[in-house]
Amino acid sequence: EVQLVESGGGLVQPGGSLKLSCAASGFTFSGSAVHWVRQASGKGLEWVGRIRNKANSFATAYAASVKGRFSISRDDSKNTAYLQMNSLKTEDTAVYYCTSPAGGSGWYFNYWGRGTLVTVSS
Amino acid sequence: QSVLTQPPSVSGAPGQRVTISCTGSSSNIGAGYDVHWYQLIPGTAPKLLIYGNTNRPSGVPDRFSGSKSGASASLAITGLQAEDEADYYCQSYDSSLSHWVFGGGTKLTVL
User: Fold this and answer.
1) Half-sphere exposure of B21 (CA within 13 A, CB side)
2) What residues in chain A have their Cβ under 8 A from chain B's Cβ atoms?
């Protein structure tokens, strides 16, 4: 069974940092890209960024709203991806989902985690 | 504002048919990028419903179907059931932004 499990969410003050983890199982994690998508309360889904696999040089890409503040990394030996969030703003408050297009064309997301809540507030 | 436009809400009685539209532009759906659909139920992981405009993953009932024309796409749900009550999102890729984009989501209420 495929599983993606996010962790690391919580309450953080504006300007602070937080690192989310995404633990994967049930599929070939090392061969797959990993994306992060977020959903603020009452809002729609927003793509945050992605990291490709080793064959694609672990290339990353980010939405303009987080570029320069967020970074994505991965440790294939642990089947885990990370989202490092710095200089957090109140508008970053959201549920953060880890997702992967594994097994598909790469243009859509086959597998999703249940998300982890990040609250940025003083 | 979301790059792809969806109606905020739709509703229907059990057994009825509803459709959810998704309108894009010449840099995403209109550029030929496929549309995909997801179902979100609070407290659960989002679920892929339709990929590549019209394809259903294994396990998705054939009550769900997708279509695409020009810069728009639609999700149709026939034989509405109470368990279909959820939020539905369309998704594509935008060449101007160089990243994946979603619609604003549509809340389906089964009356």
Assistant:
1) 8
2) 4, 35, 37, 39, 43-47, 50, 61, 63-64, 97, 99, 104-105, 107-110, 112-115
